[in-house]
Amino acid sequence: MSQHKITIGVSLKMYFGHARTLAWCRDVARVAAQRPGIVPERVELFVLPTFPALAPAITAIDGAPVAVGAQDLHWADSGAYTGEVSAVELAELGVRYVEVGHAERRRLFGETDEVIKLKTAAALRHGLVPVLCVGEPDRVDADAAIGIVHDQLDAALAEAPAGRVIIAYEPVWAIGAPQPAPDEHIRAVCAALRGSGRDTASVIYGGAAGPGLLGRLEGTVDGLFLGRFAHDPAALATVLDEAAALVIKEDAR
Ligand SMILES: O=C(CO)COP(=O)(O)O
Questions:
Q1: CB distance 100 to ligand 1 below 6 Å
Q2: Ligand 1 center from residue 183 Cα (angstroms)
Q3: Cα-to-centroid distance, 97 and ligand 1 (Å)
Q4: What is the ipTM of this complex?
Q5: What is the 3-state secondary structure (H, E, C) of 39-98?
Q6: Residues 187-203: pLDDT tens digits?
Q7: Domain presence at residue 90
Q8: What is the CATH number of the domain that holds 58?
């Protein structure tokens, strides 16, 4: 049986400036390198800084077990798209993951299911792992949320080439909130997403995720997608320790 892998991702959104981003990356690289359990096959860690920080972040991480990804991409491979960045250029830089369809991009920048489908396909075409964000906009029960995220997922993957996908389940009402969604809600929706048919997908939870959550969700998610509660590298270290402990516990079963 293949061993279960835990995936921990962090998006820095637009919270930090350049110097703070690189200092944070160096701290995170140190935290990861000090932990023998943090190896990509068992506990996979990726961080998503802003576009200008991608290349220096890769340098700052300097061989530590931390992958760097982008927060967005354009769907075309090249052309007259002022201000945009292609999957081709991201791959050339050494970027391995790219976030697609985050709730803030859907809400503030008008990203539609069609755009998200094109971006997902572009990422996979160029060997990037899309971190595909889905989540219900309003607080509804788990059954209703499952219906909404399945529709989002089906639309996003409609023309997706083969390749690994990370599905980030982020109930929009829990993003930026003081607390994550209730454990039972996360468990129910992530279980439905895990059974959604794409066997190359990991399902991770985001929305006020932080230390303590992974242990409570034990076995029902493949990891976490962190925002604010990873700004302190010590908090991220705690989450990584929880992930490593979970992997050891699963191995012992
Ligand atoms: O949107 C998120 C990660 O992409 C979650 O953000 P917060 O953890 O800050 O709520």
A1: no
A2: 16
A3: 17
A4: 0.99
A5: CCCCEEEEEECCHHHHHHHHHHHCCCCCEEEECCCECCCCCCCCCCCEHHHHHHHCCCEE
A6: 999 999 998 767 778 99
A7: yes
A8: 3.20.20.70
